[in-house]
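2024-03-11 09:14:02 DEBUG pipeline.ingest accepted 1 chain
2024-03-11 09:14:02 DEBUG pipeline.ingest length=193
2024-03-11 09:14:03 DEBUG pipeline.predict start
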Amino acid sequence: MSPVLSRNLNRGKAQPFDAILAKVMVSFPSAKAGSSPNGERWIAVQPSEMLEVARFLKNDPDLSFDSLACLTGVDLLKYPVATKDSPPCTDLVCVYDLHSLRHNHELRVKSSTSRELPVVASVESVWGVASFFEREAFDLLGVSFAGHPNLRRILLPEDWIGNPLRKDYVYPQTYGGVELKREGQTFESGPYQ
């Protein structure tokens, strides 16, 4: 028998989203399902519960989410609201893309936090690669990850002011004596003063 075939025979069964959601909600009743207009589905969890949810998703034998493929952040400030009368959402959202190599299923988990005090529990102790992802979200969006052992800027200089991926970020005109705006250049993603 080929090694590839024998390896696939040892794989577990991929769980559908509804089965994963039901399993998570037994242990974490505050978890909720969400979906986008294109049909993509995810599980939303509280920022303070993110570490416990991550441990559960990795250690449960039926789930075995052993790979954090991506962790990113999104600023919802300028996203369209549900109705014209709804106030704009100002939250920052951390998005975790998980994969189980054992069962070959995937899951997206989201954790929404306030713009004023953006804190989410760190999952670095569960998936080591989260260390770099969390530092990037901290650097560019200003989300703090409680329990992270080395939370500091990773892309921008330590003395940089602000978080450039926030929708209300005001781009500086100069940094270190160098003009940042070239003639004719515009910044479409945010205001420039």
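2024-03-11 09:14:41 DEBUG pipeline.report Residues 3-158 form a domain with the Beta Polymerase; domain 2 fold (CATH 3.30.460.80).
2024-03-11 09:14:41 DEBUG pipeline.predict end
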